[in-house]
Request: fold
Amino acid sequence: VGLLDDELFKDGNYKFAAARYTKALGHCGKFVDLSPDDEEEVQTMKVTLNLNLALAYTKLQNWDQALRVCNDALALDANNTKALYRRGAVYYE
Reply:
């Protein structure tokens, strides 16, 4: 997740930020034969990307997609506080 994505988000370009996060998630799936440490790093990045994507979808009021990616983050890290909070916020809407 780079500075460009952060700038897109800060400028309110949520649709483009969501597209970048989605593309980055796709790239995460291309890694093979990773060491345990590298696998953990990729998993952490996937959680982060899903959380950023959930926030972008929330800003776009795309509740179904926001819920889906919150659940994807929680599938990777069931106790992630931010994912639980974002999912709760989606349910509240």
